[in-house]
Design brief:
Number of domains: 2
Order of helices and strands: EEEEEEHEHHEEHHHEHHEH
Structural class: alpha+beta
Length: 275
C-alpha cells in the first residue's frame, strides 16, 4: 500500500479486492457506494446512478494531533502514520449491529459473522470488484424473514453476568429489543465442555478459566427460566448425547409464532415495547 496515507480498515465490511486493494460497500441515503484505496487516497464511486453526495471521509493530519505534554510520546508515534483516512459509517443501523456482533468475540470471528450476516440477510450487489453485501435493514427484520442469531438475549444474560453485570441492568438495557420466536440452548455437562475446549483450544478469556463451564451452565439454566417467564419458547438440546443431525432436527421443529418484547408481551404485529 502507498505510504502517502494510513487507511483504517477496522470495520468488518472492509475486504481485499484485486491487487490487494482494500474495498468496502456502504449505503448512504439509500444509494450504494463502493469505497476503495488507490493512488495514495481513499475514493468513493456510486455503484448505481445517484444524485446524493457520497459518504464523508474523515482525515486526521499529524498537525491536528494534540500538543498536550503528557501525550507527547504517543503523539510522536501517531504522527509517523501521516494523514489517517477513515470512512465514517453512514449507517447508524450498521454501526449498532456491528457493535453487537463484535462483543466478546475476536476480530477475525466478528468479521466472519458480520459478512455471513450481510450475505444471508442483506442485499448483495454486483460491483466492479465483484459481488459485495450490505448489512440487513430494519425493514428486513420486520418483513417476516427468518433471522438466526448465534448470540442474543440468552447469551447477554450469561456472558455479561460472568463479568458481574447485574441482571436487572441487562434487562433494562435490552428493554426494547424484539424477543426471539424461540431460544435454542445447546447444553452439555461442565466436564464435557471442558474436554471439548481442551481439544479445540480456547478462543477467548472465558474459555481459559476452568471455573467457567460450571458457572456458564448454571447461568444458562437461569436465563432459560427468565426467557420462559417472558413467554419465549425455550428449547434445550443436550449435546452430551445428541448428534448434530438430531440437534438440528429439534431446532427446526421448534420454530413457532412471532415474538413480543422484553418489557411487555405485546401483540405479534407490534414487535416492540414502545407503541
Amino acid at each position: 500500500m502507498d505510504s502517502a496515507i494510513t487507511l483504517t480498515v477496522d470495520h468488518p465490511a472492509w475486504q481485499t479486492g484485486a491487487d490487494d486493494v482494500p474495498v468496502r460497500l456502504v449505503e448512504h441515503h439509500g444509494a450504494p457506494w463502493l469505497a476503495f484505496y488507490r493512488d495514495g487516497g481513499l475514493h468513493l464511486n456510486a455503484v448505481r446512478e445517484s444524485t446524493t453526495a457520497p459518504p464523508s471521509i474523515s482525515v486526521t493530519s499529524p498537525e491536528e494531533l494534540p500538543s498536550t505534554p503528557a501525550a507527547a510520546a504517543l503523539v510522536q508515534q501517531l504522527a509517523t502514520l501521516g494523514p489517517v483516512h477513515r470512512l465514517t459509517n453512514p449507517s447508524l443501523w450498521d454501526a449498532v449491529t456491528t457493535a453487537i456482533l463484535r462483543q466478546v468475540v475476536r476480530a477475525a470471528q466478528a468479521r466472519k459473522v458480520y459478512r455471513q450476516w450481510c450475505r444471508l440477510h442483506g442485499r448483495t450487489l454486483d460491483t466492479p470488484v465483484g459481488p459485495l453485501s450490505l448489512a440487513p435493514t430494519p425493514e428486513t427484520l420486520d418483513a417476516g424473514d427468518t433471522v438466526v442469531c448465534d448470540r442474543y438475549l440468552a447469551s447477554t444474560l450469561v456472558v455479561q453476568r460472568l463479568d458481574g453485570v447485574p441482571e436487572r441492568f441487562l434487562l433494562d438495557l435490552n428493554a426494547d429489543i424484539v424477543l426471539p420466536d424461540v431460544a435454542v440452548l445447546l447444553t452439555a455437562a461442565p466436564g464435557t465442555i471442558t474436554d471439548r475446549l481442551t481439544g479445540r483450544g480456547a478462543h477467548h478469556r472465558f474459555e481459559r478459566d476452568p471455573s467457567i463451564p460450571a458457572r456458564e451452565a448454571e447461568l444458562y439454566l437461569h436465563a432459560a427460566a427468565v426467557l420462559e417467564r417472558m413467554g419465549v419458547p425455550v428449547v434445550s438440546v443436550n449435546t452430551d448425547t445428541a448428534t448434530p443431525r438430531e440437534a438440528a432436527a429439534r431446532m427446526l421443529a421448534s420454530l413457532g409464532p412471532a415474538p413480543a418484547s422484553v418489557g411487555d408481551n405485546t401483540s405479534p404485529d407490534k414487535q416492540t415495547v414502545t407503541p
